[in-house]
Each structure stands twice: as structure tokens, then as C-alpha cells.
Amino acid sequence: MAQTQTIEQKPEAKAGEELLRIEELHATVEGREILKGISLVIKRGETHAVMGPNGSGKSTLAYILTGRPGYEITKGRILYKGEDIAGTTPDARARSGMFLAFQYPQEIPGVSVVNFLRTARNAVSDTEMSALEFHRFLKQKMALLDMPEELVKRYVNAGFSGGEKKRNEILQMAVLEPDLAVLDETDSGLDIDALRAVAEGVKVVAAGNEVGVLLITHYQRILNYITPDVVHVLVNGKIVKSGGPELAAELEKTGYDAFREEAPAGDKGPLP
Amino acid sequence: MMRFDDAAVRALARAEPGWFLDDRLAAFARFTALEWPDPSSEEWRYTDLKGFDLNNFAPPTEPLPLADNLDGVPEHVLAAMGDVWERDGLAIQIDGTVVHRRLADPLANKGVIFCDLATAAREHEDLLKDVIGTVGVPASEEKFATLASAFAAGGTFVYVPRGVDVTLPLHAFRWLETPGVLAAARTIIVAEESSSVTYIDHYASPDATTAISIGLVEIHARQAANISYLSVQDHGPDMYHFNIQRGEVRRDATLRSLAATLGGKVSRSVVESMLVEQGASAEMLGVYFADGDQHFDHRSLQEHSAPNTTSELLYKGALKGESRAVYSGLIHIAKDAQKADAVQTNRNLILSDHAKADSIPYLEIEANDVRCAHGASVGPVDDNQLFYLQSRGLDADEAEDLIVRGYFQEILDRVRVPEVRAALERAVEAELKA
Ligand SMILES: Nc1ncnc2c1ncn2[C@@H]1O[C@H](COP(=O)(O)OP(=O)(O)O)[C@@H](O)[C@H]1O
Ligand SMILES: [Mg+2]
């Protein structure tokens, strides 16, 4: 594994500096309120885990952060690098260093991974890389993540296994070198080897550049590989508890039901 | 101006044997008897030729001289033809007359024929007589087919003897430049048993020319023969183009065809694959990209009349501006065609609010043990794909362009002639920028 090369420290990247601030965020999807008051602060270099049962609003939070059409902030605000991002486009957010690893990555038939990665890299970066420069750069990233060469020649996610799709998301993260990475259930559906590979990948990529990570997960097991600084428990659109890594272990024992009780009465989470 | 009448037919046929002239005159008589295509008929439901007046056009008159080499071909024509890679044969026609023709010597020595129809009628009379009109869309059924039969000019006759492989493509570049001309190219391809050939009909014209271009294509794939027929229509925006193509595929033979439609004001293409013997198979690809007020009408027929026959059709198009496209295709599986396998897929990407596409599949299945699948879609670029790419930093336009490129790349991957693939990739790029 090569590590010396890749990630140059961007001048503004300082550990401990505030990166993301979410204040009392309420959000709707197609008119229905899904997020019901979320607050959290992520500093550079920190990893925050957001844990919650299915339907609790985890993906909604990820999409609200990255500006997906149809997802609307109705109350509260999101400050990213000190700026309110309401109304900015998804691509503007990406260019200012936000990255989302999708829970369900899209297939883009006919577009090779390598072509896609270069187009995306050139879109977010101030300096255009030549094809040759990019090729070298990509090779380093692939070595870092132990990715098979053959994968980047294929069309984006077309016919990929679940594990390949998730690894491809992390490869994109490595290539785009974000400041804030939102990982939406990147661990779901992976067997133990794939999980380890993906988790190690996230760790190396994140460590190099003081990346703030919002690690969204349903299960505790990825936290065996990536130790979060803070764990938030999201139930029914609200953070019902925040704490240190030990909170994840507690969750593992008690399950989400114990926390549901802390949610407002009559609210048993969404239907299956 | 020359009119469409018997005298014009005779003038065009003056260097041809009498039977060929008789054929033309008979076709012209049928043409005169046929009604003008009317949108009330099923065939022309989607293409209204109101406002199109044949009297504004004329058949070609004086044939141009034949050039022995490319130096004798006008430079602007060579420029329009673009890069032609290695070829076993090349023919260049201007306004329906052949100005240059070349066939690799070793193939000529093996008995391969590659010439225009008038030459074939003189020098290969028996061969031509045997096949001409035998698989064509019956001229009596089709107004433009009869017109093309009567006024065929230039055209191509390809004959590949038994067991001979023509490894590099034969390429016909058909350039139309005289305003008001009608150039009807009749193409007849015969591949005898266990032979193979790839043939390209490449149509083009300058931006300012309004003229009529007709391709009447008859393909014979004999037992275990392998034919690829690629038609690339890259006319100027004011052209009328009508393509009528029918291929007959015999036992264990394969016919691959591509209909690429890029230019023209009105462009109509009919592609029919007749799988007449056991084990015959056809691949039918279609690619189109319309903009402005272009009108594209694609029709297809997958005719399974024998058992164990296979056909796979995939047409993909995109539309910008106020363009309009219609695809309608029929799969017909006859009673005896057990174990037939037919697939028909048509996809349309709508890239503007004012473009419109229709996709109409027809199935007619008389056998009971067959596999038959069809799918059609008309719609804009997928929102989920767009958001995925935007979340990677591409703005909305870049994201859409990349998706459209990929959409076409998937079908272009199946075009086996690399230079045609490359030309179509360039055409897609140009359309995206337009
Ligand atoms: N596009 C949508 N339209 C309507 N409801 C949605 C949409 N997306 C998500 N939801 C609803 O929002 C709630 C939260 O969904 P989601 O954020 O995907 O949860 P999680 O990621 O935690 O499983 C669920 O009840 C879900 O049904
Ligand atoms: Mg989710």
C-alpha cells in the first residue's frame, strides 16, 4: 500500500476547525416531514456515526446535506464551512468538498468508471489533470484501496455486485478528496471481508486530509473498524441520544426499541 | 427541368439492356397508379408528406465521368466523406452517378463483384436478373420503392461467391449536392453460401441542399453466409431521405444491420429481416439523434417464417429541439416457426420540452413454442442518475451529456466496424454541442 503520495494537505484543512453545523433541522420529502429537529456539529478530522433503524430518516439526512431535489429544509439551517448552504445545487456542494457515498449507487451504463472518475475529478478540482496524470493518480488510489484494475474499465456500477458498488463509492471518495464525507450505509449488504476492505479504505482516505465523516449505519459492526468520535442515535427523524463510542456498544445490546421509548409517545417509527 | 415521366426513365436507362428498361418502365407505371402516401394509412400514419411536392424535384440527367483514382474526385466530396479507413472496396457517387469505384484485386480475382447497377446489368446480366426484385419490398406496395426502382441511378451490386470472405468493408459514399435532384440508390447484396461481407452505405449532403435521397436495399444472405449492412444517413437538415431495406436470411445465415439516422428534414427508414430458413438470425440496430424540427420515422419487421430462427432488434434514439421520432416495429412469428426467439427494444431519450417520440410495438405470434420479448421507453434522462452525477460535481448539463453519451455508447459498442462506431461517437458529440 502506497500512502506517501496522495493527499496533499489543502491549506485550509486544520484539525479541530468546525466543518459542518446542523441546527434544529426540519425537513420534508414530498411534503411529508421526515426530519424533526436535528442538531450536530462536526469538526475537521472527526467521525460521527449516525445510527438508526430503517425508516428513521438517515438517508433523508444524507440527501438534505447534499441537496437532492425534492428534499426540503422547512426549519433550521445547515452551515458548511460557515456558510448556509440552503438553495445551493448538489454540484456546487460537491465542488466545495462534500461527498455522499450512496446507500444504493446508481448505474450509469455506457460510461466507464475511469472516464466518470476523471470527469468528476476535473469538475471538483481547480486544476485539470491530463489523461496521463489522472491515470497515475488513479493507480495510486486503486493501490491504496486494493482495487482490481479491471473494475475501472467497466461501466459505472453496471452489473457490479453489492460489494463492488460500495468499493466503487469509496474509490470515488478517494479520487474526489472531499472535506466532508457522508457515508450512507456503506457497510450494508457486505460480507465480512468486503466490510473490512471498505472500512479500511474509508479510514485511509479520511485520515490523510482531516476529512469530517458522517458515517450513517444501521449496524454497529462497521464501528469495530472505524472508531467514531461521536455516536448519534436517530429515531423517527430525531436524534434521541448522542454519546461516545460506547453508545454504539450499548445499542448493540439493547437494540433500537429502548430508544424508541425516548421518542415522543405514540410514535413507533414507520411501518415496514 | 427534367420531369418524372417515361422519357426521363428512358434517358436514365440509355446504357442498359432492354429488360432493365422494361423493369423501370413497369415500376414507373405502378408508381403512377399508386396513391400518394396518406397519413390515414397505417404505414404513413406518423409521417405527413403534405407540402411535399415531387414536382419540385427532378431525376438526375447527365452522368458524371468516372475517375480512376481519388485525385479525380472533387476535393469537397472527399472532405465530406471524411477519413475512410482500410477498405476492400470503395465507391463514390455524386447525385446518383458513380464517379469513382475500386475493388481490391485479390477479391476481384476470386469473383467478387462490386459495381453500379447499370454495369451489373451489362456485365453480370444473369446474376443480376436472378436476384433483382426478388426480396425487395414489393414495389407495387410502396410509393417510394416504385419511384426508386424506376429512377434508380448509380446504385450498387455486390456479389460474394461461395466460401469467399471479404475481410475489410465495402463502402459506398453517396453524396448529393444538386438542389432538387432525386437520387435513388438501389443496392443489391448477394452473399453466397458460407461467404461473408460488410457493406456500408454512407449518405451525406451539404447543409443548404434540399433534395430527395432514396435507398432501396435488397440483401440475400444465402446458407451460412454472414452479412453486415450499415446505413449511415448524415444528410443536411433540409433533405428528404427514404430508406427501404429488406434482407432474406437463409439457413444458418446471419444478417446484422445498422440504421443510423442523423440528418434530414424528414427521414423514413424501413428495415425488414425475413428469416426464411432454419437457424437464420438477424441483429437489427438503430441509432438516431434528432434536433431542430427533424422528423424521423423508423419501421421494422422481424419476420420469422422458419423454426429456430433468432432476431434481436435494438433501436436507441435521443431527441432535442422540436424534433419528432416515431418507431413502429412488428415481430411476426409464423405457425411453423417453432422455437423462434425474437427480441425488440426501442428506447427514446427526450432532451427538450418540445421534442416528442412514439414507440409502437406490434406482435403477431402464431406458433406456440417461442420466446418473444419487447420493450419500449420514451422519457427524459433519469433523475436518480442525474443526482448521482451532480453529487460528484458535474453540473446539470454536464451530467445529462454524460448520461446521453453512455446511453449511445451501449449500442455503439455493438457496432463492429470501428470507424463507423467512431464516426457515430463524433456525431453524438456534435449533437450534444449543437
Ligand atoms: N422519496 C420519498 N417519498 C416519500 N417518502 C419518502 C421518500 N424517501 C423516504 N421517504 C420516507 O421517509 C422516511 C425516512 O426514510 P429514509 O430517510 O430513507 O430512512 P432510512 O435511511 O433511515 O432507512 C421513511 O418513512 C420513508 O418511507
Ligand atoms: Mg437509508
Properties at a glance:
heterodimer; A: 272 residues; alpha/beta; Rossmann fold; 6-stranded mixed β-sheet; 8 helices; 12 strands; disordered N terminus; disordered C terminus; B: 434 residues; 10-stranded mixed β-sheet; 19 strands; binds adenosine-5'-diphosphate
Describe what this molecule looks like in 3D.
The complex is a heterodimer of chains A (about 270) and B (about 425). With about 270 residues, chain A is an alpha/beta fold. Chain A has a domain at about 20-105 and about 180-260: 3-Layer(aba) Sandwich (Rossmann fold), CATH 3.40.50. Chain A is about 30% helix and about 30% strand. Chain A contains eight helices and twelve strands. Chain A has helices spanning about 60-65, 90-95, 115-125, 130-145, 160-175, 190-210, 245-255, 255-260; strands at about 20-30, 30-45, 45-50, 70-80, 85, 100, 110, 155, 180-185, 210-215, 230-235, 240-245. A six-stranded mixed β-sheet of chain A has the order 6-9-10-3-11-12, with helices on both faces. The longest helix of chain A has 17 residues, at about 190-210. The N and C termini of chain A lie far apart (about 45 Å). By secondary structure, chain B is an alpha/beta fold. Chain B folds into two domains: about 5-275, no CATH class; about 390-434. Helix content of chain B is about 25%, strand content about 35%. Chain B has helices spanning about 5-10, 20-35, 75-80, 105-110, 115-125, 125-130, 145-150, 385-390, 395-410, 420-434, and strands at about 90-95, 95-105, 115, 155-160, 170-175, 180-190, 195-205, 210-220, 225-235, 240-250, 255-260, 265-275, 280-290, 295-305, 310-320, 325-335, 340-350, 355-365, 370-380. A ten-stranded mixed β-sheet of chain B has the order 2-1-5-7-9-11-13-15-17-19. Chain B has a nine-stranded mixed β-sheet with strand order 3-4-6-8-10-12-14-16-18, with helices on one face. In chain B, helix 5 crosses helix 6 and helix 9 (about 395-410) runs antiparallel to helix 10. The interface of A and B includes residues 99, 107, 123 and 156 of A. The complex binds adenosine-5'-diphosphate and magnesium ion. Adenosine-5'-diphosphate binds near residues 30, 34, 54, 58 and 59 of chain A.
